């Protein structure tokens, strides 16, 4: 039996979408994939339907680097509503508790926020995609089940109070992968003695990628109607540019050949502190590598096109 032919066009690259409110990340991906008529696509970590903002979408060979964007630091602007707890930790859930909001000064709020900066532990919410015995927690939550979850370490690099407006706090957050802003909101609310939930959430940055460079779904749909699917490719970033905060290494000759064969190679003047690098041959993106202990560069994820 012959190999099943994949439907669509071979589209490769990263599209920065400014996701609208009310749409799941997968629904946004499927819409853009349909507009591009792309064979293969994936997103780089879910944004809740309530949230808006930057959602990098990877197509074709770029899906091979999606995990590295998933692992990148994120930046959010969020509004917390104090005094109200919900089933989901955000405005989409049902209200389960209301409490009076104490009169606290900005200095007192700052004292509480200081407790959540740096490395902290979070218990993942039931309404999350984490799987227990193969079952996503949110499905169990919809069945009314509560499962014990182990705390996870995350890092809050920045937690800045931008404004206090009646019962709402507006925060600027920069955090590591795996951080649940809903959980952070609930924990801050408890520390203030009144509970809280996320009323609004906007993601503005993923690694080196910024929402200012993103395109709206509305603009993509208009361009599709006017000029067809190929016109949308002007919004695709080359794969290497999506990881532009990583050093780039140029390889030539034998080094490029052996690296493409999966072997670590010695490259002059690699960054002394090690870490992840982008790999190029004559400015053609080859994929992702890592500087290992002996100073050689090892291929970790190579792509077939650039």
Weakly predicted, low-confidence segments: none
Tell me the name of the CATH class of the largest domain: Alpha Beta
Beta strand count: 19
Our estimate of the beta-strand percent is 25-35%
Quaternary: single chain
Secondary-structure content class: alpha+beta
User: CATH H-level name of the largest domain... which superfamily?
Assistant: Pseudouridine synthase
**Tally of helical segments:** 7
Shape: globular
End-to-end distance: 31 Å
CATH fold field value of the largest domain: Pseudouridine synthase
Order of helices and strands: EHEEHEEEHEEEHEEHEEEHEEHEEE
Q: Indicate how many domains the architecture comprises.
A: 3
What's the story with the biggest beta sheet?
11 strands, mixed
Q: CATH architecture of the largest domain, please? A: 2-Layer Sandwich
């Amino acid at each position: 039996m012959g190999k099943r032919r994949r439907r669509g066009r071979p589209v490769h690259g990263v599209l920065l979408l400014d996701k609208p409110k009310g749409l799941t990340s997968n629904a946004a991906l499927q819409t853009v994939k349909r507009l591009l008529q792309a064979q293969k696509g994936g997103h780089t970590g879910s944004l809740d339907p309530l949230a808006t903002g930057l959602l990098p979408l990877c197509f074709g060979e770029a899906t091979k680097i999606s995990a590295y964007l998933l692992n990148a630091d994120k930046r959010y602007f969020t509004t917390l509503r104090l005094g109200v707890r919900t089933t989901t930790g955000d405005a989409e859930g049902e209200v389960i508790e209301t409490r009076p909001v104490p009169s606290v000064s900005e200095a007192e709020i700052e004292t509480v926020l200081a407790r959540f900066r740096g490395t902290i532990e979070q218990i993942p919410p039931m309404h999350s995609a984490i799987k227990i015995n193969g079952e996503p927690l949110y499905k169990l939550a919809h069945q009314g089940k509560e499962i014990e979850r182990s705390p996870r370490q995350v890092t809050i690099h920045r937690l800045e109070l931008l404004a206090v407006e009646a019962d709402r706090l507006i925060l600027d957050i920069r955090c590591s992968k795996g951080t649940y802003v809903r959980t952070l909101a609930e924990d801050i609310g408890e520390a203030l003695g009144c509970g809280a939930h996320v009323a609004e959430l906007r993601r503005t940055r993923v690694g080196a990628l910024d929402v200012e460079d993103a395109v709206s779904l509305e603009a993509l749909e208009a361009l599709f109607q006017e000029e067809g699917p190929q016109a949308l490719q002007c919004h695709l970033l080359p794969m290497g540019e999506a990881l532009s905060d990583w050093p780039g290494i140029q390889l030539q000759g034998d080094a490029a050949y052996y690296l493409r064969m999966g072997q670590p190679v010695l490259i002059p003047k690699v960054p002394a502190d090690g870490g992840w690098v982008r790999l190029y041959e004559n400015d053609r993106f080859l994929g992702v590598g890592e500087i290992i202990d002996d100073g050689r560069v090892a291929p970790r994820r190579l792509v077939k096109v650039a």
